[in-house]
Amino acid sequence: MLFEFDSDQRLWQNTVREVTAKECPSSLIRDVVDNDANPIQIWKTYVSLGWTELTDPDTAVELAIVLEELGRATDPTPYLATMTQFAPLSSEPIDPEQPGTAVFEGVSASRDGNGWRLDGTAHRVLDGDRAEKLAVVTSAGVFVVPAADVTATRSPIFDPVLHVAEVSFDGVRVGVDQRSSADPARAMDLALTGMALTTVGACQRVLDLALDHVRNRKQFGSLIGSFQAVQHKAADMHLAIERARALAYYAALTIAENDPRRRLAASMAKAAAGECQSLVFRNGMQLFGAMSFTWENDLQFALKRAKAGELLLGGAAQHRALIAEEYRATQL
Q1: What confidence score (pLDDT) does residue 219 get?
Q2: Superfamily of domain 184-331
Q3: Locate the Acyl-CoA dehydrogenase/oxidase C-terminal domain: which residues (predicted)?
Q4: pLDDT > 70: what percent of the chain?
Q5: What CATH class does 100-180 carry?
Q6: How far apart (Å, rounded) are the C-alpha atoms in residues 99 and 101?
Q7: Are 209 and 150 contacting, i.e. CB atoms less than 8 angstroms apart?
Q8: What letter would DSSP give residue 220?
Q9: Cα separation of 285 and 206, whole Å?
């Protein structure tokens, strides 16, 4: 495994960063929040640039670069759910015109003639209200279901840009042709890694905004960035982000290499990202002071995206427990 970007990957990172800065500025995020603007044009840009084609495990690192930059930009599209949750569970290539998502729990499958019947309610489904297709994980296998067959209701959450929904299945009938051969456990590795990278990107945005603020804000006649306490907080944020980023890209590398450590790496990445956002959230708000609570401050969008990334698909404590269990199992 290579633990540094090569020249092509560095070029890719710069390209993605330039695109997001142009196509997904904070003004657009505010338009989505305040005026319910439709971000469909950004999604079309991602499609035209080939970002929705990064579905092969060999491109896991390139996909990771995109996910981090989109987390940094507070991406308002269903890209994360489509590429890291739906795509690895679908047995067919994704249709960029039809974003998708995954339902990992809450739905049961029972035999119904030559097919199956799906029942249950799934909570906190990322982009469940605007996905065109859903990959549903059940004890009988994975089924790809059209959104028209289910009832999805968007749930109000603290991140006004993020779509999280409650999805109900009331006797949804699926046939053999809708059953996917994908491995849910392997798909979850990518879902966790993608969420970790999104959280890291949001944390980086918080640090960027905080550094810009302390370099320009004066107090008692001096830039507050010259105060040692402020520098220590910024340094702690940087170290936490670098650690979480390293683990997230390590997880992406294990996916690209089909390394057997991928399950453990994904949980490590998710746990580190969750712990990172906790420190970055606290220090970022303190460095901004009372300004951090104002609606006019763009800091809120990155903070909320980072916090949502911690809560979705299990928090740091849950994944720390999984890591400990994995290590105990290897010692028996």
Answers
A1: 79
A2: Butyryl-CoA Dehydrogenase, subunit A, domain 3 (1.20.140.10)
A3: 194-326
A4: 98
A5: mainly beta
A6: 7
A7: no
A8: T
A9: 9
